Amino acid sequence: MTIRSGASTSEPRHLPRLALAALGVVYGDIGTSPVYALKACFGSDSHLNPTHANLLGILSLIIWSLLITVTLKYLSVVMNANNKGEGGIVALVALLNPWRAKPGSLRYVLMMVGLFGGALLFGDATITPAISVLSAIEGIDVATPALHRWIIPLTLAILFVLFMIQKRGTGSVGDIFGPVMVLWFVAIGAVGAIKIIHQPAILAAINPWYALHFLIHGGFIGFAVLGAVFLSVTGAEALYADMGHFGAAPIRIAWYVLVLPGLVLNYLGQGALILDSPGAIDAPFYNLVPAGWIYPAVVLTALATVIASQAVISGCFSLVRQLIQLGQFPRMTIVQTSSEEQGQVYIPFVNWALLIATLGLVLGFKSSDALSAAYGIAVSATMVITTVLSLFVARRYNWRLHIVYALSSLFILIDLGFFASNLLKITGGGWYPLLVASSAFIVMMTWSRGRALLAKELFKDTEPLQEFCRRLAEHPPYRIPGTAVFFTYGTQVPPRLVLHLERHHVLQECVLLLTVVTEDEPRIHAADRLQIIGIAPGITRITVRYGFMQAQNIPVALQLCEELGLKLDLKHVTYYLGHETIIPSSEVPGMAMWRESLYSFLSRNASRPTAFFNLPPEDVVELGFQVKI
Questions:
Q1: CA dist., res. 148 & res. 156, Å (int)
Q2: Type and span of the H or E element at 272
Q3: Mean pLDDT of 533-538
Q4: Are residues 423 and 540 in the same domain?
């Protein structure tokens, strides 16, 4: 079952290197869950004692959550619903082609739901680095409580360094962190296996009956503890979001060969330890480590949790880029960090915003136990949305519906159980990711609606293009050498062209009316990029198509025009852009005043079109407009 083939563009000989790099970017989050997941299940809030039955039930839930949610749902099903190799919830929404859907229609509702699912990931992207690194450094308490006061300062310092190195690019970070994660999964699997050998009875937890028995007889406590069990699969959404960075095959190889065995062995090893010593539940991960290896374990865990943060950071970069290209988020500076993989980008503003929020969370919550109350609700909600969208994608592309409905029912049941349990965390900190997601969603909707209102106001009094060309032929202006490029949205005359003609009474010999279209596909081949239509002598309409994962470089596109036979004076090109000053006004129907003020603020601070379209600044002329919306 696959649509729009998502096979990696990487050659088979590159798979081992990409699988290693994927370990260093994609699997940090889910790979470090053993540090805090089992401990959280028996935390003070759960009121659950580490009895033999409870322990087998919890471990069985964790193991089968990994098998069903990660292995079956994401790796086997959802990753097939990719948009020509790109994953993530926005790429999934794009497969439904909802951007021009009528408000109130099913596709429009699905678009809103999908965009809110994307917004939820912003909250997760700040909590994951905080809880991951903080839980690792808390291992110092196991080694020597005398260093407890250094936990917060060390955590802040490590997080600061992590965000500072993001500008090196996802690929470089993955190459550095990949070998560390190989050591991590081998080490946690080894210490777990050693303990299992001494207490093989713990292997009974592989039987799913213990998970069902625990849920059936656990009552409200059994339901509530699902929120802590869910911590074992946080990071699964990152596998899908980061698919465009490495391809599906390397991610799957890394999971089956190293990640899944290491996780299962470590969880079972922690369970075997608790069967022997119930008091070890206070820090089962570190108590599993031989006494003489505590300090090296803390260092390795700190490195691994830094890598855990990398998965959501890189996924956040990908998400923001997709939203910007599709017109759902304000323009920002995007730095391409790889000449081989277009999905590897760095966004400075997003990086610094995440840094500030993450440091604030560490200072505010002060412990991983406190942060666990805020962790999970955003990811569990996103997983529910991903399952729903995948079902509609499968229906649209005619997958085998009887299989689709059966699997979707299973996934929805599990996802809703996790989400409902995580709702119990709202008062304890779960409000934070919901607040972040709501704020991001408001920005998305305001930016998208504001752009539509701005275009409506700019073009409301302009005449049709054919009428303009007829009038121009009757009263031809004086033509000067050179090429003028005017950006436009549809069949109307660009207001900038009208203003230029009225003010200067001249026109360049070659006038290009340029429309830039972002398609629902991640990439458009260069051969399909341009559509050239002659409108009138010296006036040509050009449509340039890009995928939502591609940088929009207009000068390069104009070079392609020459290859298609359109003669241009590329040495004397002038790009005419509008510099609109947005004036919120109740006189013009549109949005609430506070949203219009927000759009005005976003517009002033968005990256200028000169940088976004890679235009040479010396060839740009900006024409100012004041527009009431």
A1: 14
A2: helix 260-276
A3: 87
A4: no
Say how many domains are in the chain. Answer: 2
Residue 489 and residue 405 in one domain: no
Band of the pLDDT at 44, cuts 50, 70, 90? Answer: low
> What would you report as the CA-atom Rg of the chain, rounded to the nearest whole angstrom?
27
Shared domain for 442 and 467, answered yes or no, is: no
| CB atoms closer than 10 angstroms to residue 314 | 28
- What is the C-alpha separation between 512 and 486, in angstroms, rounded? 6
Q: Can you give the pLDDT at residue 4? A: 36
User: What DSSP assignment string belongs to 40-96?
Assistant: HHTSTTTT----HHHHHHHHHHHHHHIIIIIIIIIIIIGGGS-BTTB-SHHHHHHTT
How many C-beta atoms surround the C-beta of residue 167 within 10 A? 12
Residues 6 or more apart whose CB falls under 8 angstroms from that of 192 comprise: 262, 265, 266, 267, 268, 269, 270, 272, 288
Classify strands 573-583 and 530-536 as parallel, antiparallel or unpaired. Answer: unpaired
> How many C-beta atoms lie closer than 10 Å to residue 467's C-beta?
12
* Residue 329: φ, ψ to 5°: -150, 150
Whether residues 410 and 470 share a domain: the answer is no
Of 34, 17, 597, which Cα lies nearest the Cα of 266? 34
Q: Which amino acid is at 320?
A: V
Give the SS3 label for residue 332. Answer: coil
pLDDT at 35 over 70: yes
DSSP, res 586: T
143, 239: one domain: yes
Q: How far is CA 142 from the centre of its chain?
A: 35
Does 455 map to a domain?
Answer: no
The number of angstroms, rounded, from the C-alpha of 573 to the middle of its chain's C-alpha atoms is: 37
Residue 383's pLDDT band (cuts 50, 70, 90): very high
Q: What pTM was computed for the model?
A: 0.83
- The two tokens of residue 429 are 């900190």
Q: What interhelical angle do 431-459 and 106-137 show, nearest 10?
A: 140
Q: Is residue 3 in a domain?
A: no
The token pair at 111 is 């678009």
The span from the CA of 454 to the CA of 546, in Å, is: 22
Whether residue 439 is found in the same domain as residue 471: no
- Among 449, 470, 499, residue at a domain's last position: 449
Are 392 and 539 in a shared domain? no
As a whole number of angstroms, the distance between CA 265 and CA 37 comes to 14
Q: Confirm whether 424 is domain-assigned.
A: yes
In a domain? residue 382? yes
Which pLDDT band holds residue 9 (cuts at 50, 70, 90)? very low
CATH number at residue 82: 1.20.1740.10
Q: Which of 414, 429, 466 is nearest to 40 (CA)?
A: 429
Record the tokens describing residue 495, joined without a space: 């207001």
pLDDT of residue 565: 80
Which residue segment(s) compose the domain that 485 sits in? 461-628
And the tokens for 546? Answer: 């890009």
Q: Read off φ and ψ for residue 516, nearest 5 degrees.
A: -100, 125
Q: Show which of 395, 420, 449 is a domain's final residue.
A: 449
Query: Is residue 338's pLDDT more than 70?
Result: no
- Residue 2: the pLDDT is 35
Asked if pLDDT for residue 354 goes beyond 70, the answer is yes
* Long-range pairs, 580-584, Cβ under 8 A, ≥24: 580/454, 580/458, 580/624, 580/625, 580/626, 580/627, 581/624, 581/625, 581/626, 581/627, 582/450, 582/454, 582/627, 582/629, 583/626, 583/627, 583/628, 583/629, 584/628, 584/629
Q: Phi first, then psi: what are they for 521, rounded to 5°?
A: -100, 150
**Do 126 and 233 share a domain, yes or no?**
yes
The mean-pLDDT minimum among 36-50, 68-82, 257-271 falls in 36-50
